[in-house]
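Exercise 7. Given the encoded structure of a 422-residue chain, write a plausible sequence.
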């Protein structure tokens, strides 16, 4: 009997001690898997050490859908990979406005007007997120040796690219590797090309009108930009495998072929994602490199890109503190110091301490565009999904597959069909 009382007393003491000792996480952050996830966690540890707060990072394959379906959650801060998702969650009261979390002066100091506008709802006039990371899209990658062999040409406009390609291709050399097949999503890479051309040729104002769906794809300047894709792809001998290969071969092929001695192509038109598919035995700056897609009538700093956004679900003191530290212009010093890091802060005041030469070069383009407010987010991600993630993909895929004769004749029919989705 005594032993039983002792056992019960022991269990009670153990439970009380466990409750007193155990401290739940003060801030739970949720978001996607990152290439640099361990470096990000190291940064969170630095915040923990400086604040005394306990922070946890949870990985979700689709954080936006998870939050939309689970309103009762212990998540305090969420990293959302697209602005449209941020506004959707904000308007449904899943994530909170950051207007009372960050001062207007701080927002204006840290972020370009464009980045602020695309996380602000036109309905509620509330801003629901602050950008965390950015990555560039508007890039032409090249094989260094092959590029030197053709005279290391520099291009001031897309027209100069077309002229050089036309002259080079007369020698039956395939200058470009441009495969875009990506399963059911085939066409998203072609939307990147279209966005580059629109921003470069017509500037941020028209780009914004189009991405906001205030003008249709049949508008003359958009029509011209679609045709400009064909002006490159339909040049005889310009593209490895011709336009018919482009929509049928996986996009990852481009970068293996670009660095192959058995394939002619010198260039590939792709965003930051290309760096993930370069052969592991090849080195940036030695075997491959890139230059920014050229701008013509507008600022030469203009660039299209993507990124992710910090949002708040629980407005507590610890959450507000951690949120502000994550966007602070001093965040990420250790992360950026890693030689393989891919972190580019969206805060335009953040000091560029990046050691990775590829990321450093990308970050210079990003920062220049943020300062000039010429950075523009991927337009297809800002549009209604039935357009940007469906109709536009299909329209451009069909356009490329048609070939020169049919495409130039039927382009207006394609855009009329696309506009019916607006």
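Solution.
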């Amino acid at each position: 009997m005594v032993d039983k009382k002792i056992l019960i007393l022991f269990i009670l003491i153990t439970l009380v001690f466990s409750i007193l000792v155990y401290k739940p996480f003060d801030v739970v952050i949720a978001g996607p898997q990152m290439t640099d996830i361990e470096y990000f966690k190291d940064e969170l540890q630095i915040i923990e050490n400086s604040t005394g707060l306990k922070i946890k990072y949870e990985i979700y394959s689709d954080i936006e859908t998870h939050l939309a379906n689970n309103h009762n959650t212990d998540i305090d801060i969420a990293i959302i990979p697209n602005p449209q998702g941020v506004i959707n969650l904000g308007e449904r009261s899943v994530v909170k406005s950051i207007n009372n979390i960050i001062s207007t002066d701080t927002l204006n100091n840290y972020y370009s007007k464009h980045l602020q506008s695309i996380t602000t709802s036109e309905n509620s006039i509330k801003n629901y997120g602050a950008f965390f990371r950015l990555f560039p899209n508007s890039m032409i990658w090249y094989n260094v040796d092959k590029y030197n062999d053709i005279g290391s040409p520099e291009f001031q406009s897309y027209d100069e690219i077309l002229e050089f390609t036309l002259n080079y291709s007369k020698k039956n050399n395939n200058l470009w590797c441009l495969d875009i097949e990506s399963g059911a999503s085939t066409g998203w890479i072609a939307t990147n090309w279209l966005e580059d051309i629109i921003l470069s040729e017509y500037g941020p104002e028209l780009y914004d009108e189009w991405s906001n769906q205030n003008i249709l794809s049949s508008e003359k300047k958009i029509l011209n930009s679609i045709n400009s894709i064909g002006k490159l792809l339909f040049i005889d001998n310009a593209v490895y495998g011709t336009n018919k290969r482009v929509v049928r071969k996986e996009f990852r092929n481009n970068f293996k072929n670009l660095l192959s001695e058995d394939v002619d192509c010198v260039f590939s038109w792709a965003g930051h994602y290309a760096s993930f598919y370069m052969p592991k035995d090849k080195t940036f700056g030695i075997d491959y490199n890139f230059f920014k897609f050229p701008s013509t009538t507008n600022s030469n700093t203009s660039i299209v890109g993507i990124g992710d956004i910090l949002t708040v679900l629980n407005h507590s003191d610890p959450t507000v503190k951690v949120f502000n530290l994550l966007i602070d212009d001093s965040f990420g010093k250790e992360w950026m110091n890693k030689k393989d890091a891919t972190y580019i802060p969206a805060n335009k005041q953040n000091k560029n301490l990046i050691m990775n030469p590829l990321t450093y070069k990308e970050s210079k383009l990003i920062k220049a565009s943020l300062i000039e407010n010429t950075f523009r987010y991927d337009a297809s991600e800002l549009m209604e999904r039935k357009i940007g993630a469906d109709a536009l993909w299909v329209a451009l895929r069909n356009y490329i597959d048609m070939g020169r004769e049919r495409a130039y004749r039927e382009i207006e029919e394609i855009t009329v069909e696309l506009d019916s989705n607006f």
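Remark. Residues 139-302+379-419 form a domain with the D-Maltodextrin-Binding Protein; domain 2 fold (CATH 3.40.190.10). Students should compare their own answers with the one above.
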